[in-house]
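INFO batch 0412 | record 1 of 1 | parsing
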Amino acid sequence: MATPDLRELYLSLVCLITLVLVIVGSVQVVRHGLDLLLPDPPSPVFAPVPEPVDSTATLKLPRSYEQALRQTERLRMQRQATRGLLINLVLLVLAGLIYRAHWRRLQAARRT
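INFO prediction complete | emitting tokens
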């Protein structure tokens, strides 16, 4: 059995690394897709409590302010999930193309 030369070793190593990248990218695509479909519930709104003017008065945040904060948080989480999904889709495509090109070169090198 012939020992693989340096070129075959390089091509095999690149194929292995790109396969690992495809696996990692696939897992991340699923994770970000689930974040888009099933977002986390909004966190409770904690604001600093201002000092009341008198001891019997209590200050509460207006309901519209709480809703605006929750809406902003939901949009931020949705944006992060969308960005992560797109970034990992690009990773999958690039790793797949690099893998395919190197795999073909490796098969051609082994035939000769």
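INFO post-check: Helices lie at 6-37, 63-111.
INFO record closed
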